[in-house]
Amino acid sequence: xxxxxxxxxxxxxxxxxxxxxxxxxxxxxxxxxxxxxxxxxxxxxxxxxxxxxxxxxxxxxxxxxxxxxxxxxxxxxxxxxxxxxxxxxxxxxxxxxxxxxxxxxxxxxx
Amino acid sequence: xxxxxxxxxxxxxxxxxxxxxxxxxxxxxxxxxxxxxxxxxxxxxxxxxxxxxxxxxxxxxxxxxxxxxxxxxxxxxxxxxxxxxxxxxxxxxxxxxxxxxxxxxxxxxxxxx
Lengths: 110, 113
Hints:
By secondary structure, chain A is mostly beta strands. Chain A has strands spanning 3-7, 10-14, 19-26, 30-38, 45-50, 56-59, 62-66, 70-75, 84-92, 98-100, 104-109. Chain A is globular, with a radius of gyration of 13 Å.
């Protein structure tokens, strides 16, 4: 069965303090690994899709990387508006389920 | 272009009552998904559909039924609501041609007393 584990559960950073969020996964043949951002009271908002090990994608202060076992979401010089829950999900080739991790709650202090 | 629309936004039910949550998408997507989100549990897949007239079980299907009679709509039914079904329910859809990522609605907050 496909599984996703995210760490840490919660992270508090000072504005400008860079860090990384981890997503470890097991899947039978990866078709895609996704990162989403979720603000309170809203649905998840798509950030990135990674398809194969070694791939990297960037958007503003965020950079996502992928290996055969895990993905990292690097946040460089974060701002308070980056505060949100970040969700990781995988899509394997066993079926059409898309499985999510429990998320990392990120809080950036001004 | 509204994307994914969920109705209702909020609902309170008594134990044993039934209800249907509606998800509608206007992007002509083939795939549709229902998730529930509970504190500390992330998003858990209830049921999904790979096309009109199809449904399949997700991670936590017990106590729920679904139907996909029209391509644009995906209905989630609770036949006899239980307090354990108190949650926020999210619907999502995706294309089979343009990327694999899900497009989410803004959720339905359901309380069962």
